[in-house]
């Protein structure tokens, strides 16, 4: 509850009138007191008639889980209690966790005399479970002398989880199944190292695939059909240092990395491979040994949802050396990381070179659209020229590091976040087809 602007103007007008009358023609003190008492009585009467917070009931729909980068929608219903109608709501704001925006305004539309509806839309930019504290309303008293500002508890939570929209939409299933089990798979048979089946030899097939012993037993030419080996180990290594907290396209880099990692984990599940998880910052953190993809996916989703936002610098030497000690079998390691310049990337390059001797390494980093805009934008002031020069130098240094990694055999992917999952899937399918693991 607080005084409305009308009450302030009324009080100022009454005081000014009394001062003018007293200065022009002195009046009895009792008359001035009576005027003030009448104003106070009017204010108290208006306050007594005003609707209270207890006269309004708030009903909310259960907030569903929302993916990072999307917007959560929470329906709200305001219902009048008792015989009085619902007051005319002038303003409504939701009190949320600071990570969700703090006080978020929303519109409330009256539906008849006793109900009103509103929709709370919350942009989900960071993973975690956030409380939805309360709904603040504002309405005026009948005479407009007071503004009532009740606080109605929401009593709800919002869970922001990694985005698995490509998995639930079926796009990954279509791509992987068509590549591994469709037309392309038929063309690649005979180039693998794992026995698939025997089939009758026909014109056009490679004569080196003929199994002469079985052909003699069957008294007809029989050829071996091979396919790419399965049950490979794939480890998704997530760098959770402070560089991965920087936002690109509205989300922290680590969230883009998690979304892409879950996409490749689902693809590996369809491909019959084993998937593991490894996270690190200043020191090694969570590790999940490679497991069959379908059973590992729910665990991966839960562990990545609990992964916090670190503010320390990553120690690539310790993290990669520790990961190398955990793996005794040749694996595909997908490392989501970033670096600031060539100096800080020196240790990263050296340790990836050591790890590459036994494993297949895919290094994933993000292209910064803001850096590209500064580099390619039109210069209208000297400051724009300076920013373009600095951006071009940073891009050149990044490319030097990526070139060094490519020369030692590391597969490098640097792309915009929106293009990361398709690029990573194409790289994974190419590695399986070429049997690099």
Automatic annotation (TrEMBL):
Q: Which Pfam families does this entry report, sorted A to Z?
A: DUF58 (PF01882)
What is the designated name of this protein?
A: DUF58 domain-containing protein
What SUPFAM superfamilies does the annotation carry? vWA-like
- Give the matching InterPro entries: DUF58 (IPR002881), vWFA_dom_sf (IPR036465)
Q: Residues in domain DUF58?
A: 198-369
Tree of life domain: Bacteria
PANTHER family recorded: BLL2464 PROTEIN, SLR2013 PROTEIN
């Amino acid at each position: 509850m607080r005084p409305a602007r009308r009450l302030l103007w009324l009080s100022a007008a009454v005081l000014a009138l009394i001062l003018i009358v007293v200065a022009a023609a002195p009046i009895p003190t009792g008359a001035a007191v009576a005027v003030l008492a009448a104003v106070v009585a009017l204010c108290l009467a208006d306050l007594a008639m005003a609707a209270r917070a207890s006269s309004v009931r708030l009903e909310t729909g259960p907030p569903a889980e929302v993916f990072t980068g999307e917007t959560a929608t929470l329906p709200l219903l305001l219902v009048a209690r008792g015989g009085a109608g619902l007051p005319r709501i002038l303003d409504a704001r939701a009190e949320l966790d600071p990570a969700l925006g703090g006080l978020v305004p929303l519109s409330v539309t009256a539906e008849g005399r006793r109900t009103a509806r509103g929709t709370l839309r919350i942009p989900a930019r960071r993973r975690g479970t956030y409380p939805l504290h309360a709904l603040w309303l504002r309405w005026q008293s009948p005479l407009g002398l007071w503004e009532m500002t009740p606080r109605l508890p929401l009593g709800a939570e919002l869970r922001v989880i990694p985005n698995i929209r490509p998995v639930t939409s079926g796009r990954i299933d279509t791509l992987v199944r068509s590549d591994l089990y469709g037309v392309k798979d038929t063309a690649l048979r005979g180039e693998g190292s794992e026995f698939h089946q025997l089939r009758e030899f026909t014109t056009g097939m490679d004569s080196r695939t003929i199994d002469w012993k079985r052909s003699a037993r069957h008294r007809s030419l029989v050829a071996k059909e091979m396919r790419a080996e399965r049950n490979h180990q794939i480890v998704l290594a997530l760098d959770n240092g402070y560089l991965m907290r920087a936002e690109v396209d509205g989300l922290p880099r680590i969230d883009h990395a998690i979304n892409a990692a879950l996409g490749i984990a689902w693809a590996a599940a369809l491909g019959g491979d084993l998937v593991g998880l490894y996270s690190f910052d200043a020191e090694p953190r969570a590790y999940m040994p490679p497991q069959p993809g379908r059973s590992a996916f729910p665990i991966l989703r839960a562990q990545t949802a609990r992964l916090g936002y670190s503010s320390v610098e990553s120690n690539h030497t310790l993290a990669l050396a520790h990961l190398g000690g955990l793996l005794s079998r040749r694996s595909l390691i997908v490392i989501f990381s970033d670096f600031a310049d060539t100096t800080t990337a020196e240790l990263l390059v050296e340790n990836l070179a050591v790890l590459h001797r036994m494993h297949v390494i895919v290094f994933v980093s993000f292209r910064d659209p803001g850096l590209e805009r500064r580099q390619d934008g039109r210069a209208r002031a000297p400051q724009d020229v300076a920013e373009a020069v600095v951006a071009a130098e940073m891009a050149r240094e990044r490319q030097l590091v990526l070139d060094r990694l490519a020369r030692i055999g590391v597969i490098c992917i640097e792309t915009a976040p929106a293009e990361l999952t398709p690029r990573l899937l194409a790289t994974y399918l190419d590695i399986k087809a070429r049997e690099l693991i």
